[in-house]
Amino acid sequence: HLLPTILTAVFGSASAAKDSQYDPIQNFPALVEWFTSHGGQIDPRITLGYEPSTNPKVRIRGMIATAHIEPETVLIHTPASLMISDFDRNHCEVIQRVVEELELGEESKWDMYFKFDGSSLVSASGLDDGEEEEQGHGQRHTRTPTQWKTEDQPGSRAILELQGLPPTGDTHRHINWYTSACNDSEELTPIQLKAFVMFLTRAADRGMVPMYDLMNHHNGLINTRLQVDEEGGMSVIAATAIEENEPIYNTYSRGGGESTVDVFNTYGFVEDYPQLWRWSDVDMIVKAEDPNHAFGRYVGPDENSGVDAEGRGFEPNSHHYELLVISPTLAALHPTKALVHVLGNGRRTIDEWKVEINNHHATLRKSHVNAMHDSALAVLSELPTTIKEDENTILPNERRLFEKVKKKGRVDQSKADTIQAIEYRLAFKKALKLAVDVARIGQFYLD
Prior knowledge:
With 447 residues, the protein is of the alpha+beta class. The longest helix is centred in the C-terminal third of the chain and has 29 residues, at 413-441. It has 13 helices and eleven strands.
């Protein structure tokens, strides 16, 4: 299972040309014409634009509703004939089909679709100095960690800037998989690399699904669901009412199966709240060898263990340390599968989350809370820089240096990767700090 659901584009070109040859927003009508002429359907109240933002310097590109849309409306229908897929859902075969279609160039049926692939777009936004365009997932000039330079290559700072936090040691697993499983461990050609990144960052479990893969990810504001028909086509359905100028969201990590660490490692961005942070230490790695160890975290109404040997009852979402972060001040320690099931499947208000988390913490043994507190504190104390240093000194300086080079007409991709890693580690550190704070002030079961 290489990836869960679809992704938007990852923008990683090193070019700094001011004029992109193909502007996705301006040319979206051409994509719609191609899509509908080949049997696709898209609601006319959907466009590609910039999501509303309180920060004028931030522009996140994604699908937007231009008018009110009622629940259960079919927003997009992609027929099987427009998908690049494999009957057996063999990922290697799907990527090879993308390679073959890319080689056809303008003769390919999917040529128009490929023009909307972010990996081929110019990453420099052409904005005035001081403006910043965050495209697709909301990241500047970002690539997936699997595209970063490896530790043995010059300019490989990005991996080092993770400071040992997950996904250190696992950043290149996707490209290593593709190289070994699909290409006999041979060096990839540029077109193979392009096809692989396109697949990694956009593919559904059914393969490449045009139009559907332009939706952005948000597990807190998701407003769509998916439906597959008997002919193999796939529809995007409005799960809620969608208002004018509201973004249309998908999920890349439904039901808590993938953590925020996994989302970053696959797609190259830190997702908005809610976030699901996961880590281990030596003690937890040993405990995790016992598949039943985490069930003892919880206490049922009869004040006995919350589950039996078969796992019936309270079921932990992860056998490692895990923190569900709803806001900068609200989080749940060691969430259960029931608590995180709503992620990518529905919405909760902050007040609803507070009730759910308080009820959850009342069943969580204080001894397990203390262990999580100590682990998070130990990780923070062992890192070479603090939250304050990262946020107030290191990150602003790296951004300044990046902008200095950019003003000279060049994008320093290694520097962009480094900033991406620092932004991620800062978010991880803040989550660890929140775990410590919640463990100290929360109300838990005193065992």
